[in-house]
């Protein structure tokens, strides 16, 4: 059995495990397994010994995994890859010697991948898969067009609005990270998005063990509309040159009882992001934190 055949066998078993979790309603576990398989495929695709047509199929399968994982964490995803679509991919993987792109679920295969994927990971990775000479300038253009900070929410009289000033984050390897940026989301207790996610521009500076940002994030849901168990999440992503991919570094969050006006520091946790706050592991024992300043204003 060739190395590629062994990889395909491993991917099939992983996808079967992922879809089983998905069908049982264990959405956090399913999302984690989809992301793990996605990472495995994208890590292997540059070195695996197979044809370019098969690599294109693998990229489309990776796209399906990413979108399904996003679907599990949000009711507002722009693409809807269903569980039955993911199950079909098991046979697609098993038949890579004869499969064609048309066998990939229609919602992905019918249009260019770059048109349906909205995170930097893919815009960079797909370009590097088709050409090893992709310029850094193109990556920078993708990054700059991706940041999506939104203006202050228009709320009704009496509602309290939250603005977070993202000041800095302490990391022992702060000077080594390439193009670090934050994704900010607001989730309820079941990990469903309460409002649109936002992405900051990359860090504005580096001072010793700190990445500095200085950006204001207007949370797009009034405090009163955040149900019990809700939290604001901060995920730090960075670009890995060796893998030509964007990777999660760590995450942090603030629960409702922590949302008070003024400066604050919050702990950092190891990836993957656990939006249900069940399995949390500190990133480091060192006194390094995410530094924020909260402003809560009432609409008059």
UniProtKB/TrEMBL annotation:
Domain C2 Aida-type: from-to ranges: 150-297
Any one Pfam family match given in the protein's UniProt record, by short name: Aida_N
Record carries keyword RNA-binding: no
GO cellular component, one term: membrane
Record flagged with keyword Transcription regulation: no
InterPro entries: Aida_C, AIDA_N, AIDA_N_sf, C2_domain_sf
GO molecular function: phosphatidylinositol binding
Keyword line: Developmental protein
Gene3D superfamilies: Axin interactor, dorsalization-associated protein, N-terminal domain, C2 domain
PROSITE patterns in the cross-refs: C2_AIDA
Family: Belongs to the AIDA family.
Function according to Swiss-Prot or TrEMBL: Acts as a ventralizing factor during embryogenesis. Inhibits axin-mediated JNK activation by binding axin and disrupting axin homodimerization. This in turn antagonizes a Wnt/beta-catenin-independent dorsalization pathway activated by AXIN/JNK-signaling.
Protein's name in the database: C2 Aida-type domain-containing protein
